[in-house]
Structure formats: structure tokens, C-alpha cells
Design a protein that fits this description.
By secondary structure, the protein is mainly β. It folds into 2 domains: 5-213, sav2460 like domains (Lipoxygenase-1, Sandwich); 226-495, no CATH class. It has 2 helices and 30 strands. It has helices spanning 96-99, 152-158; strands spanning 5-6, 11-14, 18-24, 28-34, 46-47, 59-65, 68-74, 84-90, 103-107, 113-118, 127-136, 139-149, 271-276, 279-283, 289-297, 303-307, 319-321, 327-334, 340-345, 349-356, 361-362, 368-371, 374-378, 383-389, 394-401, 415-421, 424-430, 435-442, 445-451, 466-467. Strand 11 and strand 12 form a beta hairpin. It is globular and about 60 Å long.
Length: 495
């Protein structure tokens, strides 16, 4: 049984067959075939207008019409050392906001939709990683990604090891592509409609690589985004600043706006460490006070994150989970007498980013959609906190009322206001902000918003959601140190 409609960050198994993938929203389709390090093995691993078929024949462009461009991905024919296939969309001019609603949908040979993702928030991006197909447990999964790049397709490709993008005359949507051997490719394919079958993939001879058509790769230096001064918190993005060991593999991040009316705690440039398996992490130079720790883990097994005190003794557990591919945002405090030190127990590649509290997700009258634990900010007047939770295990939420709490290096006493098991529809009163809402445990997808903030009830209906999720990260080299990973929730205490 395959899950068709996905939210950002969610994933589902797909059959290991030749999938037909529709990229909609007037976007040009591109595919990147990535090895285990999250980078292409060479520029031949880019399937785009200038090179419409991979040398292996497993992935190819298949024309398009009516604002839809098609890719064919023969998952059973993908080379063994290719771990992921990124499905990318880029504009032909202007920004994504100006072109339409981007979406991606994968179809089995019989026309059944096996995975679909529609982006609900777009901006000034000109290129997007819409989704990725990746190997898992002997099969393949489809993950809804939705990561934007304002620097365009070249910037997106450079983040994954591409030197110079193969280019050709801009092939308009609706024009069939020719294979490198000169054989005609599939004719334009109409957009599927419910109940209609998608045509089976055309039999195309295995293409022969044409190296002469590919420009000589020019290595793209790993560039870090220009830091934003701390005195301008409204523009501070959650941009990863890799450690020296991880600088060779930039980790793309989505900017997170800092609320202008949030003044509790210092604002600093986010710090990121990457690695794999068990490790002890140390973040030097952070100002004392509460921070958000964003944890991403790729793999299966147990994940546990615990702060260490100045005597190197473990404090209260931040997360204790056996969920696969764990993701979550956790609340902890940088001590006043030393660096932030964390003990991470994980099995597989991970990424840890420490963010200022001001970069936490903002509660408003619009639905905020997420999966896993999170840290939320409430700055409005007295409001009701509405949450819809679809997990099977514990949902635990606390609040920290900051009114009158002037010590920015500590948190006030926390109050537990949700402690339930299984799917829930809860509404709870919140006092006037500023208030921190900590979802300490949440093993499944959820959506939350504020009610009673001066707008009618029907202006934020159940089916409208502001979707936010983690940007995917490039798995670090196995030889590198410092790591993060993901799992299924177990009990954890914070005192």
C-alpha cells in the first residue's frame, strides 16, 4: 500500500519499477543521481536539457506539455553506487512564485499514483529540490523535500558536486527530447487525470555516452553564505556554518526568519556539526542561555541526545527515540560556565545545528505543519493553542511564560499542559506572550496554530497549512567525525 499525498519532509515506499514522474508548475525538470556522499560522481550524473538521458539509461527526460515536464526513472536499472535520485524543478525566467504551484507526482506503469507532493509555500526561488528517490531496506522510498534555491539551478547543482551544468537550447515544454544516439524519444505525455492510465514507458535503446557534448567540469568552490551581523536579528538565517571537518560537504539549509518582536535571549550565527554514529559534540563561543538544537539523523536504530555538565556528567535526556530517520528541534540551555557539550548516541550519519531561540518557529493564526518535537514562539495576546496530532505514541507539551523573567541566561519554571498518548485534537489556553511552547515528544505529524488572535475562526480552515520542514542534509564522509541520526520515540525525562 503506497501513500500518495505527502507533506513536506514525509516519505513513503514506492515500487521498484519504471516510474513516470510529473514535474508541474511550468518548471523545467532535472534529475541528479547522487552517490552515498550526497554528491554526483561526475557531470554525467546530471539529466537535464543539455543531457536528456543518463548514460546508464535508467533516468531520462521524456518531454512534456501543458505546464508539465516528465521524467522516467527505471529504479531497477539505477546503478548500485547511486543512493539517491533528486527530482529538481527550475524556472525558465522569473521566480517560482511567478510561475505557478509547483508539484511532483510519481506514477507506476499502470497509471497508479504512488507518491505526490505539492508545495504550499513558494517565494523568490528559481530552482527547487522537489523530491528525492532513495534506497531503503532493499527497496526505494520517495521523500517530499521542497527545498528552494534563489541562486538557480547552477547553485543547486554546485551544492551536490556538479561543476558546470550541461546546457542546450532551452527545450520548451511540449517538445520531445532526442536521445544521444539520435533515436526519437517518447512523444509528449498529457497530464494524467484521476482514473486515467499513464502510458507505459517507451522502449528506448540504451544510450551511448557522448562525452563531447559535456563541458569540461570546473570545480565549484564550497562557499558559505555571507554571515548577517548579530545586530540585525530580523535578517539572521539558519544557515549552516560547517566545522572544518565538514566544510568539504556544504549542508544546504532553509532560511528561518527571526521574529522582529522576539527579544528574549541573544541572537548569534547558527553553528552546525556533522558526522556519523556515537560522538561527543562541543560548541564553543555560544552566549549562555536557552537555544534550539536541530537534530537530523539518517538511518535506522536508536537515537539519544543528552547535555553534559562541567564535570562531564549527563543531564536530563533531550531525546530518546527508536524512530527511523529522526528529525526534531529540541530546547536546551548553554551553561554560563563553559561551552555547550552534548553526548549523541546514533547509528548512521547525522547533523546538529544550534540556533538562537529567536529562530524557533512562530505560532500565528495560520496552521503550522511539522513532524517530530519542536520549539514554538507565542508573542500575541491571550490565545488558545490548537493542535491536531496524528502520532501513535506520546504527545507531551510544556510552556514557559517569560513575562517578568529578566534573566536571559536561564528559563523560567516550565508548566506541562499536554501529556497524552495517540492521535489527539486538543485546544488549550495560553497567556499573553512572550511564551515558549515546547513539544517535547511528538512521534508523528501534527499541525498547530493560535486561535483568538483577532481573526474569525473560518479564516484558517483545517485544510490550509503553512508547511515547514527540515532541509535534507548531505550524508558526511564515513571517515569524518561528529554525527546525528533519527528514531522512534521512547520515554525521556527533563526533570
Amino acid at each position: 500500500m503506497y501513500v500518495s499525498d505527502l507533506v513536506k519532509g514525509a516519505n513513503s515506499f514506492v515500487p521498484t519499477v519504471s516510474l513516470r514522474i510529473a514535474v508541474r508548475g511550468e518548471l523545467r525538470a532535472t534529475a541528479l543521481l547522487l552517490a552515498g556522499d550526497g554528491r554526483v560522481r561526475g557531470d554525467q550524473d546530471v539529466v537535464t536539457d543539455g543531457a536528456p538521458s543518463h548514460p546508464s539509461g535508467a533516468v531520462r527526460l521524456a518531454g512534456g506539455a501543458d505546464g508539465t515536464t516528465w521524467l522516467e526513472a527505471g529504479l531497477g536499472e539505477v546503478e548500485a553506487d547511486v543512493e539517491r535520485v533528486l527530482v529538481v524543478g527550475s524556472t525558465r525566467g522569473g521566480t517560482v512564485r511567478e510561475t505557478g504551484v509547483p508539484s511532483v507526482e510519481a506514477y507506476a506503469p499502470d497509471g497508479t499514483s504512488v507518491a505526490r507532493y505539492e508545495m504550499t509555500e513558494v517565494g523568490d526561488e528559481t530552482a527547487l529540490v522537489l523530491a528525492e528517490l532513495y534506497r531503503r531496506a532493499g527497496g526505494w522510498k520517495f521523500r517530499a523535500v521542497g527545498q528552494g534555491y534563489t541562486g538557480g539551478l547552477q547553485a543547486l547543482a554546485a551544492d551536490h558536486g556538479v561543476g558546470v551544468m550541461p546546457v542546450a537550447g532551452a527545450a520548451p515544454v511540449g517538445v520531445a527530447f532526442a536521445s544521444p544516439t539520435g533515436a526519437p524519444a517518447a512523444a509528449p505525455i498529457p497530464t494524467p487525470v484521476p482514473g486515467a492510465q499513464v502510458p507505459a514507458p517507451a522502449q528506448v535503446p540504451t544510450p551511448v555516452p557522448a562525452p563531447a557534448q559535456l563541458p569540461t567540469p570546473v570545480p565549484a568552490p564550497a562557499q558559505l553564505p555571507t554571515p548577517v551581523p548579530a545586530q540585525a536579528p530580523a535578517q539572521v538565517p539558519t544557515v549552516a556554518v560547517p566545522s572544518p571537518a565538514a566544510a568539504a560537504a556544504p549542508l544546504p539549509q532553509q532560511p528561518q526568519p527571526v521574529p522582529r518582536d522576539w527579544v528574549f535571549g541573544p541572537v548569534f550565527e547558527p553553528r552546525t556539526l556533522t558526522g556519523r554514529d556515537n560522538d561527543v559534540l562541543q560548541m564553543d563561543g555560544l552566549p549562555p542561555g536557552p537555544v534550539v538544537v536541530e537534530l537530523l539523523v539518517r538511518g535506522e536504530g536508536w537515537t539519544c541526545l543528552t547535555p553534559l555538565n562541567r564535570r562531564n556528567k549527563e543531564g536530563d535526556v533531550l531525546v530518546n527515540s527508536t524512530e527511523d530517520d529522526f528529525q526534531g528541534r529540541l530546547l536546551t540551555t548553554v551553561p554560563q560556565d563553559g561551552p555547550l557539550r552534548l553526548r549523541l548516541q546514533a547509528e548512521g550519519p547525522w547533523q546538529v545545528t544550534v540556533l538562537p531561540l529567536a529562530a524557533a518557529h512562530r505560532l500565528t493564526g495560520e496552521w503550522l505543519e511539522w513532524r517530530g518535537p519542536d520549539v514554538l514562539l507565542h508573542t500575541a495576546g491571550p490565545s488558545d493553542f490548537a493542535i491536531r496530532y496524528k502520532g501513535d505514541d506520546n504527545l507531551i507539551a510544556h510552556r514557559y511564560e517569560l513575562e517578568g523573567h529578566t534573566d536571559h541566561a536561564t528559563l523560567p519554571r516550565r508548566e506541562n499542559f499536554i501529556n497524552e498518548i495517540g492521535a489527539r485534537r486538543e485546544t488549550h489556553p495560553l497567556p499573553e506572550g512572550p511564551v515558549i511552547v515546547e513539544l517535547e515528544m511528538a512521534d508523528g505529524p501534527w499541525r498547530a496554530r493560535l486561535k483568538g488572535v483577532g481573526q474569525p475562526e473560518d479564516t484558517a480552515p483545517e485544510d490550509s497549512a503553512t508547511v515547514q520542514a527540515f532541509a535534507p542534509f548531505t550524508a558526511p564522509d564515513p571517515e569524518r567525525t561528529n554525527t546525528v541520526r533519527k528514531s522512534r520515540w521512547g520515554w525521556r525525562g527533563r526533570g
